[in-house]
Amino acid sequence: MKKLQIAVGIIRNSDNAIFITRRAADAHMANKLEFPGGKIEADETPEQALIRELQEEVGITAQQTRLFENLEYAFSDRHITLWFYLVESWHGEPWGKEGQPGEWVAVSALDAQAFPPANEPVIARLKAEFAGS
After folding, report:
1. Alpha-carbon gap, residue 50 to 85, rounded angstroms
2. Segment 61-87, tens digit of pLDDT
């Protein structure tokens, strides 16, 4: 079984909106919404991977990050460990640098059903902590 470590950025702006992208049609969990991020390489810390992945995927340089949630999820063919970081300070404007659609969505409007199942507890926590902000 494949074991993957994934760094994920929850990019939250001052209007309390989160930047999300849509997974490619040929990717695992195709066409689902996602927070940008990707695989942690063997020589990287989760935070180093997050910074690299956000530069590659959405063209921003994360300035301030904090670990928001760390969880594990098992699929039939893979086991993933997810490191979710809250990113509230960055340089640049996020966009779908790899051709993926991206948009800002209010925290209160995040729909856990539109994301891969491993994201559900994180979305619930985001709503609990920030939906009233």
Report:
1. 8
2. 999 999 999 999 988 888 999 999 999
